[in-house]
Write a structure and sequence with these properties.
nine-stranded antiparallel sheet, alpha+beta, 12 helices, Rossmann fold, Dna Ligase, domain 1, five-stranded parallel sheet, D-amino Acid Aminotransferase, Chain A, domain 1, binds glycine, binds adenosine monophosphate
């Protein structure tokens, strides 16, 4: 089988790593890919937001199955274009991708499904939004309605911060994404992520994870795309996961099917858990990054079979074989991230790292230049390991981190601390 993965981050490196282990995979192309992916698959330059270009590429390379990594091509309708052209695709339609692309849409679906989530108001006018904030007080959460690369959420602990966020959003700071806002009740609790494959009808859980969003140790400092993650998430016990399935996931997926836009792909549910009760924080329509890295390390080759069963509507007959193990990933980022940082700095020591079924350094933002690996982004490497315990996974991951020679990069030394 010839497989095409769209994307270029650590998530796509992990997907490629798992897919390559499956004997069904004859040829793997990742577009655009990165320097780490190039070591295990063919990388190709391709505008992945351009449906016609992706179709032409898939035809030229006789692709049998396409996995869409990031949200942007999904929100642009690339999965629809490919399916309409006759390809088998893992990833939701443009309409179903609104679960990530529009916060107000997700709130409406939760209303229709009676799913537990934060109370909210939806505003297209700054004065009405401010009146809502003044009436409800802080803490309160202000969200740009559209895709804002993870930066469109302001958790305001005081009223003035929330009012300023309204000015910023309606003032154009988030472009079109901020032309509408959702204002939510602040939820307390512990967050965890739940990953579920959905084929329009059947919902099959494939794992839980927790990430560390803050840049600093002890979960302090600025928000980032994620500085590390681990799976499973102890806070998401079997019992709470079942509640989330019964009260949130299945009802909302049924609401999607009922309105004529069944969901197909991986559903990433961000949950807030308090007193044994989960509530939905948000949906994403793709794997988390870096959560995907720990999930793929635990799933291995079967990930391809599961994604194919999902795309072909066969999840009712699929099963997930879970080892009773743990995985953990440490993100190495360029000094300065999530603020300004240098690009093009050289990373040494990568060649001597172990590459086994339980240790892998996934690349998130790298390129090969003059025979060396250089950093090309903020989050650059995802040093990932698996173990019988979380402690063992963490020790293995940090042993690899210590072999990497990159003076211009840093990582948090406490990934997994809550669970450890
Ligand atoms: P989102 O992009 O909607 O996941 O929001 C980003 C982060 O903001 C979440 O992971 C939470 O940590 C926080 N957050 C979002 N909504 C709420 C809420 N209603 N109450 C408390 N925290 C929230
Ligand atoms: N790690 C958070 C995300 O992928 O959205």
């Amino acid at each position: 089988m010839n497989i095409l993965i769209l994307g270029s981050g650590g998530r796509e490196h992990a997907l490629a790593w798992a897919v390559m282990q499956n004997p069904k995979c004859d040829k793997l192309i990742v577009a655009p890919g990165n320097a780490g992916i190039a070591a295990i698959a063919t990388c190709a330059d391709l505008d992945i937001l351009n449906g016609a270009a992706v179709i032409a590429f898939a035809e030229e390379h006789a692709i049998d199955f396409i996995i869409v990594g990031p949200e942007a091509p999904l929100a642009a309708g690339v999965a629809d274009d490919l399916r309409n052209a006759g390809f088998s695709v893992f990833g939701p339609s443009k309409e179903a991708a609104r679960l990530e692309a529009s916060k107000s849409f997700t709130k409406e679906i939760c209303d229709a499904a009676n799913a537990p989530t934060a109370g909210y108001g939806h505003f297209t006018d700054a004065e009405a939004a401010k009146a809502h904030i003044r009436a409800n007080g802080a803490p309160i959460v202000v969200k740009a309605d559209g895709l804002a690369a993870g930066k469109g959420v302001i958790v305001a602990m005081d009223e003035q911060t929330a009012l300023d966020a309204i000015d910023d959003m309606f003032g154009g700071e988030f472009g079109a994404a901020g032309a509408e806002v959702v204002i939510e009740e602040f939820m307390e609790g512990e967050e965890a992520s739940y990953f579920i494959l959905v084929d329009g009808e059947t919902c099959l859980p494939i794992g839980t994870a927790q990430d560390h969003k803050r840049v600093g140790e002890g979960d302090t400092g600025l928000n980032t795309g994620g500085m590390g993650a681990y799976s499973p998430a102890p806070v998401l016990s079997d019992e709470i996961a079942q509640l989330a399935m019964d009260q949130i996931i299945r009802p909302t997926m049924k609401a999607m099917a009922d309105r004529g836009s069944p969901y197909q792909g991986v559903l990433y549910a961000g949950l807030m858990i308090k007193d044994g009760q989960p509530r939905l924080v948000e949906y994403n329509v793709r794997f988390g990054d870096p959560e995907c890295q720990v999930l793929m390390m635990r799933l291995g080759a079967q990930a391809l079979d599961l994604m194919q069963a999902c795309a072909e509507g066969r999840l009712a007959e699929a099963t997930v074989n879970w080892a009773d193990d743990h995985a953990l990933t440490v993100v190495m980022a360029a000094n300065g991230y999530p603020g300004a940082y240098k690009k093009g700095t050289v990373i040494n020591g990568l060649n001597s790292l172990p590459e086994t079924a339980h240790e892998m350094c996934f690349h998130a933002g790298t390129a090969a230049r003059d025979g060396q690996i250089v950093a090309t982004g903020g989050r650059v490497l995802n040093v990932t390991a698996r173990g019988a315990t979380l402690r063992e996974a963490a020790d293995r991951a940090y042993a690899m981190v210590d072999q990497i020679d990159w003076p211009e990069g840093f990582c948090r030394r406490d990934i997994g601390w809550r669970a450890l």
